[in-house]
């Protein structure tokens, strides 16, 4: 429990410090606010795509018997045996693992320095990365809420807006053929991935079946 607590604390402290740096460098955004908004959307969409790729990898490619990664695959497999069990997990259990994985990356990026004032490209890249990391840090929580039939009101509002993963969208993943809707941050990338069966093709290329 202590490592998860440290991971959540460090991850969110670094995200907060990065946000402060970006705001200090970008403020006032003036005519650049549409570009910065685009960076936020693209970063968040990248997190959604990454969540789908990781989720698919541990559902379809890496099994519990796989050396080194088997322990990571186990919760993914167990989630399919008992999808509602996720609702029993507290905040630290739900989010600690992702935060522990993200914290070293965030620390390196933070130590490399923030964006320079009025350097639009640097500010844009930092904003994109911040949005990406924030989306990933909260993905497991969004996934948990998507299993909740009565989420907090603000969560239900964000789900209805499509900002975070909704129950109706995620239900597709837990219905036959159990091979779609892998993205679990917001689910934005699922329509394209599923329509063109991109992950099924990738599985074919890797496993040959
Ligand atoms: Zn799954
Ligand atoms: Zn689920």
Descriptive account of the structure:
The protein has 9 helices and no strands. The chain is mainly alpha-helical and 209 residues long. The chain has one domain (2-207). The model has no long low-confidence stretch (mean pLDDT 95). It is globular and about 50 Å long. One zinc ion is lined by residues 55, 59, 76, 80, 173.
List the helices and strands and how they pair.
Blueprint: H1 2-26, H2 33-61, H3 70-81, H4 91-111, H5 120-145, H6 153-161, H7 167-170, H8 190-195, H9 198-207
Helix pairs in contact: 1-4, 1-5, 2-5, 2-9, 4-5
The structure holds zinc ion (2 copies).
Write a brief structural summary.
The chain has 9 helices and no strands. By secondary structure, the protein is mostly helical.
Residue fraction in strands: under 5%
State mean pLDDT (0 to 100 scale). Answer: 95
Q: Percent range for helical residues?
A: 55-70%
Q: Rounded to an integer, what's the Rg over CA atoms?
A: 18 Å
Number of domains as seen in the coordinates: 1
Give the structural class.
Answer: mainly alpha
Number of helices: 9
The global form is globular
User: What are the bound molecules?
Assistant: zinc ion
Q: Separation of termini?
A: 40 Å
- Oligomer, anyone? single chain
* Beta-strand segment tally: 0
pLDDT < 50 runs, ≥5 residues: none
- Mind describing the biggest β-sheet? none
Compressed to H and E, one letter per element, the order equals HHHHHHHHH
């Amino acid at each position: 429990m202590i490592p998860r607590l440290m991971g959540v604390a460090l991850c969110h402290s670094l995200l907060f410090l990065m946000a402060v740096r970006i705001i200090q460098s970008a403020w006032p955004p003036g005519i650049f606010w549409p570009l910065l908004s685009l960076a936020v959307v693209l970063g968040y969409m990248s997190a959604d795509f990454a969540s789908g790729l990781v989720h698919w990898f541990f559902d379809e490619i890496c099994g519990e018997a796989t050396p080194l990664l088997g322990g990571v695959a186990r919760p993914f497999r167990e989630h399919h045996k008992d999808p509602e069990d996720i609702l029993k997990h507290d905040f630290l259990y739900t989010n600690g693992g992702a935060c522990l994985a993200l914290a070293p990356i965030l620390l390196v990026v933070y130590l490399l320095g923030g964006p320079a004032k009025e350097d639009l490209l640097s500010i844009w890249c930092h904003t994109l990365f911040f949005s990406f990391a924030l989306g990933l840090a909260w993905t497991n929580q969004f996934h948990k809420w998507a299993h909740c039939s009565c989420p907090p009101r603000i969560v239900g509002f964000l789900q209805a807006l499509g900002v975070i993963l909704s129950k109706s969208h995620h239900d597709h993943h837990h219905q036959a053929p159990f091979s779609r809707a892998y993205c679990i941050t917001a689910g934005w990338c699922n329509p394209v991935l599923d329509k063109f069966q991109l992950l099924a093709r990738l599985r074919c290329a890797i496993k040959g079946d």
